Amino acid sequence: MTNLLHIDSSIRYEGSVSREVTRAFADAWRAANPEGEYVYRDLSANPVPHVDGTPHPELIAEVKAADTIVIGAPMYNFAIPSTLKAWIDQFTVKDVFVGEDGVAPLGAKRVVVVTARGGSYKAGTPREGFDHQEPYLRSVLSLTGLDRNLEFVHAEMTMANVNPQLAQFREIAVESLADAHRVVKELAVA
Ligand SMILES: Cc1cc2nc3c(=O)[nH]c(=O)nc-3n(C[C@H](O)[C@H](O)[C@H](O)COP(=O)(O)O)c2cc1C
Description:
Strand 4, helix 4 and strand 5 form a beta-alpha-beta unit. The chain has 190 residues and is α/β, with parallel strands linked by helices. It is globular. The chain has one domain: 3-Layer(aba) Sandwich (Rossmann fold), CATH 3.40.50.360. It is built from five helices and five strands; from the N terminus they run E-H-E-H-E-H-E-H-E-H. The protein has a five-stranded parallel sheet with strand order 2-1-3-4-5, with helices on both faces. Helix 1 packs parallel to helix 5. The site of flavin mononucleotide has 17 residues, from helix 1.
């Protein structure tokens, strides 16, 4: 049976853009896979422990069981929330690294990362080089082969809606969110 693992990590509930977009992905996936299994993990409400050498096999099993993983990743200080980092550290262990033969013990899966950023980090913007989310996630997910079918969906300029100094960028925020919704709906049924 096909299985979706849905991860959120925003500290916000009201107005969280990453939660809104991962929810849209999950809703579309569940509509397309009514028999599919759906597992939800909220890393803000229920953080996993920081890595301390104690194995948490249930977290690895949960990732292994998933065919599709959607991850909500708000940008915090140019990177990912520490709760998301803690979860990644729990399952990214030597036992499940891609072997020299190229085999990924976690199995083949599709991963969709939805980021929400207050600003914009697109090519040509002043903060282009400050995006430590996508490059980090691509690198760390490659250890376990989770980069093999990996898509990023970025909802940018979310602060334009709340910070009057960024009001000139509101249209970009609206377009970026609309694009994110369109793309996740396509990915969820692809
Ligand atoms: C602790 C914290 C740090 C943040 N750091 C950044 C940052 O470095 N760059 C940025 O563009 N936005 C930053 N933001 C804004 C968030 O990325 C933005 O509000 C985003 O929409 C959060 O995701 P959410 O809407 O799912 O909560 C930060 C927000 C918080 C709460």
